[in-house]
Amino acid sequence: MATDVRPSNWPLGAGYSHGFSAEGRAVFVAGQIGWDPITQTIVPGGMPAQVRQALANIVAVLEAAGAAAGHLVRLTWFITDREAYARDRQAIGAAYREVIGRHFPPMSVIVVAGLLEPGAMVEIEATAVIPSDTSVNSTGA
CB 3.0 to 4.6 Å from 52: which of 4, 22, 95, 129, for a disulfide? Predict the structure, then answer.
């Protein structure tokens, strides 16, 4: 199980944790974009829809490894449009909670000039740790 790590005098992060500590089997998920993994086409609907799909793709990879969203210990977001991210922050947050739940591991958001796949606005890398004690609730709720 991951536990929150932060200096005692720091406030909680807004939608993320400052740090996590975890022990178990690590799962590393390559950057996932907002595309349908079968048709390999970008989903319509802008950044919120692409974020939702990228996160769903991450969860699918985690499930293939025997993990769940609640096992996430790190997310790194690469976005191409800072203004779209700021404008759509509430919808992005809703998409996040819909897919991941109320589990907020350490996250970084990096603005990049572009992503490899044309039309991709976001790419998210993930790291998860499956605890040795598999009886731990891993739903992220």
Answer: 95
